[in-house]
Amino acid sequence: MTNATSPAPQAVPAQTLLLLVRHGQTPTTGKVLPGRAAGLHLSEQGQSQAREVAERLAGLAVDAVYSSPLERALETAAPVAARTGIGVKEDPGLLECDFGEWTGAALADLSGLPQWRTVQHTPSSFRFPGGESFTQMQARMVDALDELRAAHPGAVVVCFSHADPIKAAVAHALGTHLDLFQRIVISPASVSAISYADGQAPAVLTVNSTSGSLAGLRTP
Question: Which parts of the chain are coiled coil (predicted)?
């Protein structure tokens, strides 16, 4: 009689957790398309939101912090860097969409343009005059996140970015067509979390989270 040999346990793929954080409130949030214009800083409310993000991340073993090079994103990342002792690395892949000639335009003015309907309902077919298309923006953001998760396998990586790039990344992870990405809401200083493992589809753990501890996103 021979003893049956138990099969060797399968190795569990390392889970890489990317936290996508929109920058905090600015004086122009909800009023204009600031785009990549320099010199836009957080408002007092935005600074408070940035501190709250750092507090919410307490209990998570953060391994790396990346940010869009724009001031409002870097300022939102600063409290997390101070709390964790991890320096912020700038990543141009996390930049806001290039709105081209629409940069700095008032949303109230843009909403009256016939092109605005395209932006809202079929964004995959739209390119900002003199700027990026939504398709280019999504590809850039997804590529940046792929590079970050490849560089930090099994780690927790916090990425500070902007509303539209985060919406596009979440839509891609969900397998949702870009034309539906405007249905995703990404509020100032909100956190969206995507877990990646080799050979598996990404798992969207939370979207637009604005309160409460985030420690539960990472199980021991």
Answer: none
d(CA 99, CA 118): 14
Of 168, 162, 219, 159, the residue nearest 193 (C-alpha): 159
**With 70 as the cut, is the pLDDT of residue 1 above it?**
no
* Catalytic residue numbers, as ranges: 23, 96
- What is the pTM for the complete model shown? 0.93
Q: Provide the 8-state DSSP code for 74.
A: H
| Distances in whole angstroms, Cα of residue 214 to Cα of each of 56, 154, 156 | 6, 17, 12
Q: Around Cβ 64, how many Cβ atoms within 10 Å?
A: 18
Q: Which residue has the tokens 């109230």?
A: 108
CB hemisphere CA count around 78 (13 angstroms) = 15
Predicted local distance difference test score (pLDDT) of residue 10:
55
Phi, psi of 189 (to 5 degrees): 65, 20
Contact 16, 64 (CB under 8 A): no
Alpha helices in the chain (DSSP H): 44-56, 71-84, 107-110, 114-121, 134-151, 163-174
- Domain 15-209 in CATH 3.40.50.1240? The answer is yes
The encoded tokens of residue 176 equal: 């949702």
